[in-house]
Specification:
alpha/beta; binds glycine
Length: about 270
């Protein structure tokens, strides 16, 4: 891959606290009860990890009219100097964006999506100067095309891919390093990622496909020990396990819980 910008840990991270009624969030599978208090404890540990890594973490208060508000990644996509404030695919999540817009305003020029466009940030994976955008039950082709126009302002290309399973593109794959993709084996066509020069490693745990790389550190769900073991054998990567089990029950994972703002002159996931 030819990246114009170096890869680095983000400068600032936005997170949003857990709503007390998070158990009423959107989710496919209701078989396991969500414990919102436990989710808050796990969220605090996630935030502490980001702080311990030296990142500047901004917390946006929860809103109990938005049970999914902690999944802040879905509400905005930063392309550089510009950012798209999304129109989330789930109607119940559209009130989440007002607070995120206020929170992001100081860092980026914001572009807002209008109906009938939809896009969830969980469907957007950045790799260098490229954004892979998954069309899914949450992101429609018009939403992806809107992002293409804004991304071009920051010199990024968009590659649209089809999400075959899982909630979002990043339910199936994420970067574990600047040119290293991990993907849940068999869950997506990796041809476009290979064609972009990414090394693609299959993992056998569904939650292992969603890791969060922050410079030389990669956060891995503690529910994915085999993935953690696999990645810990990589050079130049330090694996940290994080318990996000309550968020997994809500179809969420590590990347969903934050929006990462790149350092000037660098890119991050
Ligand atoms: N619970 C995350 C979502 O469905 O958007």
């Amino acid at each position: 891959m030819s990246d114009r910008l170096p890869f680095a840990a983000p400068l600032t991270v936005l997170v949003r606290d857990v709503a007390s009624n998070m158990d009423r969030c959107e989710r496919e599978n209701h078989s396991q009860e969500i414990d919102a208090a436990r989710a808050r404890t796990q969220h605090d540990a996630y935030v502490k990890t980001l702080n311990d890594l030296g990142l500047d973490v901004h917390r946006i208060p929860a809103d109990d009219t938005c049970p999914d508000c902690c999944f802040i990644e879905d509400t905005a996509v930063i392309t550089g100097k510009n950012a798209v404030v999304t129109r989330p695919g789930a109607a119940s999540r559209r009130h989440e964006i007002a607070a995120v817009r206020s929170g992001l305003n100081q860092w980026c020029t914001l572009h807002t999506m209008e109906a009938p466009l939809t896009l969830d940030g969980g469907d957007v994976l950045r790799a260098g100067n490229r954004l892979f955008v998954g069309t899914s039950s949450r992101t429609n082709p018009q939403g992806a095309e809107f992002l293409r126009k804004i991304a071009a302002l920051d010199g990024l290309d968009v590659v649209v891919v089809n999400v075959r399973g899982g909630l979002h593109l990043k339910s199936s794959c994420t970067l574990a390093g600047p040119d290293h993709l991990v993907h849940f084996a068999g869950s997506l066509d990796i041809t476009p990622f290979r064609d972009a020069g990414l090394r693609c490693t299959p993992v056998i745990e569904p939650f292992g496909a969603n890791v969060l790389v922050l410079g030389p550190v990669v956060l891995v769900s503690s529910r994915s020990p085999a993935t953690a073991d696999l990645l810990s054998r990589e050079k130049n990567i330090a694996v940290r396990l994080i318990d996000v089990s309550e968020f997994h029950k809500a179809d969420g994972a590590l990347t969903c819980l934050s929006i990462r703002i790149p350092r000037p002159g660098a890119w991050c996931t």
